[in-house]
């Protein structure tokens, strides 16, 4: 008799899968890397912060997960190629790519200088583009060799659909990431490559603590979240495992919003009801 546990394990297990994860050292990235490893994946942790990567690897290994550390600057095409080749040499294949590397600077649209604009664009959009291009070539070769392609998971943002003030360049990059997701799903489906986008809402991480502790911004955010609480990196785990696993074999080109009901309209105004 098949138990519920064995059925779910077969459906969602990442055993045998290799995940290349950019931005692994960040608040969202580190939580997702730990979860993917716990689900059975071998996670190639990629970031520019070596000490944080090593600490994350230690946590994953201590929990009986598999992880390796790889320095990656997503703005350097030569580094991208070398990193992808290193991971393929180590594991033999890449089954899942998670593009999580990203930065932001919250200032007015008219206040950006060219250097800041270029930096955000280079990491969030250009970097995602060329990392994906390099990994997709490996996934295509794998598909032609074995019949198995791969899954690309791009981390978008709430700002792809509902833009906050002071996030113009960031919003432009994340909207571009979602557009890339759709292009990837259309062009590469014939090679067994799926591409989807996870767009987190207002997630509380060390970098967003200043926002959640702000007297007016935090009030504004909570009023616009139906569930009346911040999101946490762990809230994104379920959909990430779904998209990395074979359970999502017929899902591609989609955006998954993990936002506590923010894009739906937030908390309602007063209305008459007997419920």
Provide a descriptive summary of the structure in words.
- By secondary structure, the protein is an alpha/beta fold.
- It has one domain (14-204, 232-258): NAD(P)-binding Rossmann-like Domain (Rossmann fold, 3-Layer(aba) Sandwich), CATH 3.40.50.
- It is built from 9 helices and 7 strands; from the N terminus they run H-E-H-E-H-E-H-E-H-E-H-E-H-H-H-E.
- The protein has a 7-stranded parallel sheet with strand order 3-2-1-4-5-6-7, with helices on both faces.
- Helix 3 (50-62) links the parallel strand 2 and strand 3.
- Helix 4 (77-91) runs parallel beside helix 5 (114-146) and helix 5 (114-146) packs parallel to helix 6.
